[in-house]
Every structure is written in C-alpha cells, then in structure tokens.
C-alpha cells in the first residue's frame, strides 16, 4: 500500500494524496470494524464467555504468537496471501484506494503480516460482544493504516529521501516491527493469563 499511494514527496498534489490516504483508511477501518462485529456476534451466539477456558486459550495464543514474533518458535499463520492488484489504484485512484482499504482491512482476504490479527479476532470471539469486537477491529484498522501516514509525513518533512528510500528504510526494520508486535502480544498474554 505504501508504494501505491505515493506520498507528497513524489509530486502528487496534497489534496489528492490526502483524499487517497483517507479513503484507504476509511476502507481499512470499515472492513476491520465489520470483521470484529461479525466475530463478536459469532462469539455472542456461541456464548464462549460463559466458560473460563477460552480466555486461557486466547492468553496461550497471545503468548505463542508473541514468541513467534521473536522467532523463538515456529507457528503457522493461516492466510490467503493474495495481493491486491495495483491496477485498482492505477485505473481508478480514489475508488481503488477505498477498495484497497476494504480488502486489507477485512484481514482474511489478503496477506497478514503480523500475528496480532489472530489474537484480536480470538479475543473478540471469546468475549462475544459485537461492540467490543467492532472496537478491536477498528483499532486494528488504524494500525494497518498508520504506515501510510507515517511514510507520507516523513517524506514531506525531508526532500532528500524519496518514497522508495523511506519505504525501504521502514521495511528494512521489519524485524523491529515484529519484535514490537511480539512485545505487545506478550504483554497481552500476561494480562489475560493473570486475570483469567
């Protein structure tokens, strides 16, 4: 997504970039909120919150995926691995930005880069509250959109760095981002396992 909605430093008019990024963010947040709503509703139907065991399972899942993000263990990350076509943006920039967001925000339609997706959806399922599930999904969506804003901000603050150089720099720190994700998952695991 970062390469597709090029930030201001690449000659794009400010309003065009702003509109595309906000349409992408709207799509991501709408789709992830809807995913959370559906998963929370499913959990409400299954009434998993009445059992203590599911919270322990979410805690163990957070612990396991936290350790995975630190490369201490190997775990599968089931996902479709489908890439959104760049033609969506090239042919219809504004609609394409929204469509990108809707596809990526749903979480299960494309590549899932970080293990937190599995934990927040499991938590939404176990809690069984559609509103809380929607809130968890919304926060996830904001996290998915953050990098596009970050690249746009950093490339407008420095004329020496191109979008590709800045993107390459951020992507080169992928291990750091996975460690941060792992840390947050471990904190989540400790909280759930000590309070469940």
From TrEMBL:
Segments crossing the lipid bilayer: 21-43, 55-73, 94-120, 132-155, 176-194
Highest taxon, organism lineage: Bacteria
Alphabetical UniProt keywords: Membrane, Transmembrane, Transmembrane helix
UniProt name for this protein: Urease accessory protein UreH-like transmembrane domain-containing protein
